[in-house]
Amino acid sequence: MWLWVGIIGAWGWVCTVDVPPLVRQRKVKELMLISVIMIVMTAGSMTYIYMSRPPNPLVWLGIWISPYARALYSLMS
Amino acid sequence: MMRIIAIIRPTLVALVLLFAALYLSACWSRHELNELSIVVGLGIDKKGDRYNVTAQIVNPSQVSSKQGTSSNFSPVISYEASGITIPEALSRMTAKVARQLYFSHLRILIVGEEVARSGISKPLDFIARNRQMRTDFYLVVAKGTSAGKILNMYSPMDPIPANNLFTKLETSDKLWAATGKITLDKLIQDLSRQGKGPALTALEIVGNPTKGDSISSAHIIDPVVILKYAGMVAFKYDKMAGWLNENDTKVLNYIQNSIVQSTGTLSCPNSEGTVSLQVVHSHAKIHVNTKGEQPEFELTLKTEQDVTDISCELDISKPETLVLLNHLANKKLESMLENTLHKFQTQVKTDIFGFGDELHRSDPKKWHSIKDWDQTFEKVKINVHSICTIKRIGTTVQSISTETKK
Amino acid sequence: MVNKDTLTVRTFSILVIFFTIGTSILITPAGLALEAKQDGWLAAILGVGLNGLTVLICIQLGKRHNDKTLIEMCHAAFGKWAGNVLGICFVLFFYLLAALMVGDLGYFLTTQNLPETPIEVLQIMFVVIIVFAVRAGLVVYSRAAQVFFPILICFFCLLILPILPKISINNFEPMLEYGFMPVVKAGFSFSGLQEMIVLLMLYPYVKKPASSNGGFMGGMLVGGIVLIVTSMGCIGVMGASVTSNQLFPAYVLAKNISIGHFLERIEGLMIFIWIMSIVMKIVITLDASVIGLGQLLKLKDTKPFIIPLGFGIVVLALLCYPNTIFIQDFLSKNWAPFASIFTLFLPMLLLVVLLLQKKKADDHPVTASIDKQNV
Questions:
Q1: Is the pLDDT of residue B31 over 90?
Q2: CB–CB of C111 and B188 under 8 A?
């Protein structure tokens, strides 16, 4: 529930403070980038709120890194 | 356009200020003082395979000295509950307690004898893991009684009995070597080391326990019931292994270097009577000799003593007397140390003095080759030397007995 | 946009000290004591030495190419496409690091102090402050760091001096009982938690007298000494077995402070040290990732992106750290090798490639000048 407060707060903050000057200066590239980032992050927070086992980027990282990590640590023991 | 901005801007500022004020409110999970019950003493007993937990809670209005004991409410209240584990018992206790239990001011933790015999590591895990608990309280074992009964006793002089127990243990440990104390962090350190078993203080009730739990007993000059520290309890791993009497506790404190002051007596040479000596400095050093098959230990105890009482005819003004007293003190200390070490090697069969730890620190390879230290400890040879210097004799020279005869 | 040469060397050193202390002061003694047992302090010294190596590499990169930012260095070394990929990797690493530290902060506060508060509330509250700091700019938060630095040192002395009498030398013996390898392993894990490369993003903004390199190294050494002293204090007072079993050993160490039986139970004040250093580290890391993003996409003004990225940090922290055990497992097994790719191996590669390029340019000045004219 508190994450919703955060989401709404973030959208509100961005739209009131950062977006109007960009709209005025017609910087389309920045606006697209901001909206992409906000949409990705909102999607991420939705997965955290609604999925029972949300995907964990560290687990993906662990799968890639663990052989190298184990090799490196076995060098040192 | 400008009018919209003129409306939006102040609203936004107001919103930001409101949001900032959110940071100034109290903590999210705050508990006001009048929602807390401060637990000062905790007792753990075992009944079958359930734990009986007793909590002694302060009644603050009755403790403050300004109001005095106007109404006849007791300054502390104790509640009891049982459960399969300690957290379950404490949660069950909330059905009886007026407010939420708060453990940060815990002063003393009393463990019943059955819990000590069946293993103290299980109930201790909750204490170590709880974020409210600190490590500055003392742990004692109840001797001849149950922990719950001890927490129900009144104490003279201090309205909070757990506080009384705490200060009593601190003072006695400082002034009299036959009492030792242990805090939670030291206990966990000793439990996780194989070379030194822990030892907890033993506490017993002197007097008639049935009369001690009413406040009228605290109104008498000669207290009916006194809680007294009586030696210590030795543990092997986490189970109780044996009791330590006064002399054993003194020896443990000497070897652990946890003596601040202590008093001992010698019988007078050449006449009837005793000389009392007070130890002011003490340092014990253990030296390990690992050349042979079994490690051999040299224990050197250096003490500095003062004469506090001469109740016989002894001519203290002669230097030879002091040499003689030194010699007698050395012999007495050595015999005390040897007796206790022999008792622990043969009867109790556990090392609570730290010899194994010293071996670990000076010769790790040898230590790792020994599988069971307590078994090896039974057979090792420990040579004891005591070096005692008597420096001062108080403010008078000859004893009153010597003066009187004249 | 911040101009170059805005930070003095002293301010930068203070930022480096805050950055080095960071999250490490709270969690590293446990990892050190677990691996190296009573030699944890030796492992800390070794780890600080390893950090010194990474700082040297950063200084060399900064000194030789101080007109280029990190991303431009990647472009110069590997060409446009590969350099872009490398730059994206760096920016993502900084971003992930900021998210993980926010997660650490949230778990510390909810474990020790505020257990009934939902963790996302605490993380959102701190990220709001961090976003404010990053939006205000480098100059503002470096001045804030200068204001907080004396308080940090004061509290740190208040933490260490009263526990010095309680240190027992027996807890440090026997030294090197299990050999030197556990010390090396623990030192490597320790150095993986410092991530000095992030400061390279801020290095172009430091005024460049000859002593600026000393500022970086000096700051790292001071921070390293703070960490070594904390580790020694934890192992000396509590013993290696108790230290390795705690989640936050520095907090338990602070519980032991007792000045004349009068000033006790002040560990709540000591939290200030840790929160301050963690927040400053997150501010610097978020700023580094935002600057990196701006340099990658050639944006003139990166201020509008700070709020979305800050919001993303909270989400990433919530997704990445589901529970305490996962944190312990990940940090002990995978983090140090992963961080060492970005803090040690890639900068070394970058330095070597740039050195070789420069050497080639020096050896063939004619072709180099013709190349320059053609371009």
A1: no
A2: no
Of B23, B188, B360, nearest to C174 by CB-CB distance is: B360
How many angstroms away from the CA of C271 is the closest CA of chain A? Answer: 25
CATH number, residue B328:
3.30.300.210
Is the domain of B298 the same as that of B240? no
Q: Residue C344: its chain A contacts at CB < 8 A?
A: none
User: How far apart are the C-alpha atoms of C105 and C31, rounded to whole Å?
Assistant: 17
CA triplet C94, C95, C100: central angle to 5 degrees?
A: 95
Q: What is the pLDDT of residues B62-93, one digit of tens each?
A: 666 555 555 566 788 899 999 999 999 999 99
**What homologous superfamily does CATH list for C9-374?**
Amino acid/polyamine transporter I (1.20.1740.10)
- Report DSSP state, residue C327: H
Residue C369 has pLDDT above 70, yes or no: no
- In B279-304, which positions are buried (b, 16+ CB within 10 angstroms) versus exposed (e)? beebebebebeeeeeebebebebebb
Are residues B348 and B260 located together in one domain of the fold? Answer: yes
Ranges B63-77, B101-115, B342-356, C235-249: which has the least confidence: B63-77
Average pLDDT for C11-35: 91
Residue B296 has pLDDT above 50, yes or no: yes
Q: How many whole angstroms separate alpha carbon B54 and alpha carbon B69?
A: 25
Note whether residue B23 is domain-resident.
no
Distance from CA of C121 to the nearest CA of A (A): 6
Taking 50 as the threshold, does the pLDDT of residue C1 lie above it?
Answer: no
Same domain, B283 and B231: no
Alpha-helical runs (H) found in chain A: 2-13, 19-25, 28-50, 57-75
Q: Which other chains touch chain B, taking contact as 3+ CB pairs less than 8 Å apart?
A: C
- Nearest Cα neighbor of B244 from B253, B85, B118, C105 is B253
Residues of B in contact with C170 (CB under 8 A): 357, 361
Six token digits for residue C187: 């030192």
Q: Chain A to chain C, count of Cβ pairs less than 8 Å apart?
A: 101
Range of the domain at B296: 256-406
Counting the structural domains of chain B, the total is 2
Q: Where are the domains of chain C?
A: 9-374
Last residue in a domain, options B192, B215, B244: B244
Q: Are residues B83 and B231 in the same domain?
A: yes
Q: Is position B2 within any domain?
A: no
C5 pLDDT band (50/70/90 cuts)?
low
Element containing residue B384 per DSSP (H, E): strand B381-392
Examine residue B126 and state whether it is found in any structural domain, yes or no. Answer: yes
pLDDT tens readout for residues B186-239: 898 888 888 788 999 999 888 877 777 766 666 777 777 888 888 899 998 888
Q: By mean pLDDT, which of B267-276, C209-218, C257-266, C330-339 is the weakest?
A: C209-218
Any domain includes B12: no
Name the residue of chain A whose CA is nearest to C179's CA. Answer: A77
Per-residue model confidence as pLDDT tens digits over B348-365:
888 888 888 888 888 888
Q: Collect all residues from C whose CB is shorter than 8 A from any CB in B.
A: 111-117, 121, 125, 170, 173-174, 177, 238-239, 241-242, 252, 255-256, 258, 265
Q: Is A18 on the interface with C (CB under 8 A)?
A: yes
User: Which of B214, B244, B274 delimits the end of a domain?
Assistant: B244
Q: Chain A: give the shortest CA distance to residue C303, in Å.
A: 8
Find the domain containing A52 and state its range.
Answer: 2-75
Asked if the C-beta of A67 comes within 8 angstroms of chain C's C-beta atoms, the answer is: no
- Per the CB < 8 A criterion, the answer to whether B45 and B51 are in contact is yes
